């Protein structure tokens, strides 16, 4: 009997997920333990390996939203008969977002029924079997294609056109090549494929990664490409949570300048001291450390609002916002007030790297009681961070800028950072919030205290 490939459940809070990418094409062979697909959820991305050996058959296409536990494909053992209609294996026709192949009713859709190859309500992808087969052969992802067939159905001509476009920009690529390119930071549009039909192979990607990067020409005439970006996965979750946070909380923001002269000296000394160990604390690390120490003295900021009570958290776990192409995620530094700056710097570096590489674990994403978000590296002087509900506050870290202080009548050049604190006014008022922010300022202006 065929082995079912499920949409795996990652954590108790997961309610939906997306097959971001099939690593094994429909009809190709897979070995036990080999990566078969990449899962995208609201919090993490995860590579899923095969639990059996055999021929992989897809039930859903890339980009289709599913629920945890839904069957998204099958693995057929050698010699096992593969039915033409995979829905017979479950005894019922696929329905709702789980249907990657269109049903008979969907196949009869007319241009009046459907305006594109993806049904806006169900998430179905309307594609002919021949087009799907050609897409698998050429490595073309069809989830975002606009079909030219009846009712917006994707046909072979659409796949060929997309394949030609890929070829002119570097050629189609295998699933494993795309995965490796993502890991190595290789732009596939700059890679020439040596596989059949110009297909980019894993070896092509490895060779490209070994070459020195060429400087990209400056294009002053470029304009943004028109089109539509599907709202799903992480982007959809961020939008919903940020909107809910703003509409359900009484959020206010205050700014405060911090003299960073001594903090800059301390960081320079720590970088030199720990250079042999590869530990390089950032200014954000110092702010996180100061915030954690301040949270211990101001427990209302380390709290959550409830309908009947305010919960004061015994643990201090500071989340650090990490920017990815698809949005922000917030891995959490556990027991932040109790660990040393060196340990904090090591852990924050690991979490940031794992987040960008898609390797951050669910445990690393849970348990946050306060959040720090940094935009100083982008030259930002002040911004309004939005609270990561149900926390009571979030601290924004801005750039370090040149400023002037006065020693009597004599101007003195100094360096200043502005901190932006957003807090939930339901939990605490402006006075206590200002005292909390002032405590962080005091610690950063006498940074030796952060070493104690």
Tell me what you see in this structure:
There is one protein chain. With 452 residues, the chain is an alpha+beta fold. The chain folds into two domains: 3-209, OB fold (Dihydrolipoamide Acetyltransferase, E2P), CATH 2.40.50; 234-451, Chloramphenicol Acetyltransferase, CATH 3.30.559. It has helices at 104-107, 129-138, 156-168, 175-184, 202-210, 233-248, 261-273, 283-297, 341-356, 430-445, and strands spanning 3-6, 17-22, 29-30, 35-40, 45-49, 54-58, 65-66, 71-76, 251-259, 303-305, 310-312, 318-320, 322-324, 327-329, 332-333, 370-374, 393-407, 410-424. The protein has a six-stranded mixed beta sheet with strand order 9-18-17-16-12-15. It has a four-stranded antiparallel beta sheet with strand order 1-8-6-3, with no helix packed on it. A hairpin with a 2-residue loop joins strand 13 and strand 14. Helix 2 (129-138) packs parallel to helix 3, helix 4 runs parallel beside helix 5 (202-210) and helix 8 (283-297) crosses helix 10. It is elongated. Mean pLDDT is 81; it is low at 91-116 and 118-124.
Sheet with the most strands, sense and barrel status:
6 strands, mixed
Quaternary assembly: single chain
Strand arrangement within the widest β-sheet reads 9-18-17-16-12-15
The appropriate CATH architecture of the largest domain is 2-Layer Sandwich
Report the total helices: 10
3D shape: elongated
List segments where confidence is low: pLDDT < 50 over at least 5 consecutive residues. Answer: 91-116, 118-124
Helix/strand order: EEEEEEEEHHHHHHEHHEEEEEEHEEEH
């Amino acid at each position: 009997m065929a082995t079912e490939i499920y949409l795996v459940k990652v954590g108790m809070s997961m309610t939906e997920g997306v097959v971001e990418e099939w690593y094994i094409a429909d009809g190709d062979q897979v070995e036990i333990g080999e990566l078969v697909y990449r899962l995208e959820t609201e919090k993490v991305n995860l590579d899923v390996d095969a639990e059996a050996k055999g021929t992989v058959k897809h039930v859903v296409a890339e980009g289709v939203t599913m629920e945890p536990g839904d069957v998204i494909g099958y693995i057929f053992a050698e010699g096992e008969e593969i039915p033409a209609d995979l829905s017979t294996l479950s005894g019922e026709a696929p329905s709702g977002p789980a249907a990657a192949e269109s049903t008979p009713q969907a196949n009869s859709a007319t241009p009046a029924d459907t305006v594109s190859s993806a049904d806006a309500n169900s998430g179905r992808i309307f594609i002919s079997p021949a087009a799907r087969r050609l897409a698998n052969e050429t490595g073309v992802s069809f989830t975002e294609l606009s079909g030219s067939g009846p009712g917006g159905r994707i046909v072979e001509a659409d796949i060929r056109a997309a394949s030609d476009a890929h070829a002119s920009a570097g050629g189609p690529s295998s699933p494993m090549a795309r995965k490796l390119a993502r890991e190595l930071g290789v732009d596939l549009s700059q890679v020439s494929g040596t596989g059949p039909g110009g297909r980019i192979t894993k070896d092509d990607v490895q060779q490209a990664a070994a070459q020195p990067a060429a400087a990209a020409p400056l294009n002053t005439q470029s304009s943004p490409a028109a089109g539509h970006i599907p709202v799903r996965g992480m982007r959809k979750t961020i939008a919903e949570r940020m909107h809910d946070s703003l509409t359900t909380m009484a959020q206010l923001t205050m700014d405060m300048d911090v003299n960073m002269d001594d903090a800059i000296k301390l960081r320079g000394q720590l970088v030199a001291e720990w250079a042999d160990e590869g530990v390089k604390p950032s200014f954000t690390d110092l702010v996180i450390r100061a915030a954690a120490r301040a949270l211990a003295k101001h427990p209302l900021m380390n709290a959550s609002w409830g309908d009947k009570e305010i919960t004061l958290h015994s643990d201090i776990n500071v989340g650090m916002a990490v920017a990815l192409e698809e949005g922000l995620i917030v891995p959490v530094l556990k027991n932040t007030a109790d660990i040393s700056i060196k340990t904090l710097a090591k852990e924050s570096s690991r979490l940031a790297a794992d987040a960008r590489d898609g390797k951050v674990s669910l445990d690393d994403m849970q348990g946050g009681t306060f959040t720090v978000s940094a935009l100083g590296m982008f030259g930002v002087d002040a911004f309004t961070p939005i609270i990561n509900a149900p926390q009571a506050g979030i601290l924004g870290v801005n750039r370090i800028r040149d400023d002037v202080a006065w020693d009597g009548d004599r101007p003195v050049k100094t360096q200043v950072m502005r901190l932006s604190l957003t807090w939930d006014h339901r939990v605490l008022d402006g006075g206590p919030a200002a005292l909390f922010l002032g405590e962080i300022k005091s610690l950063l202006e006498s940074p030796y205290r952060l070493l104690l």
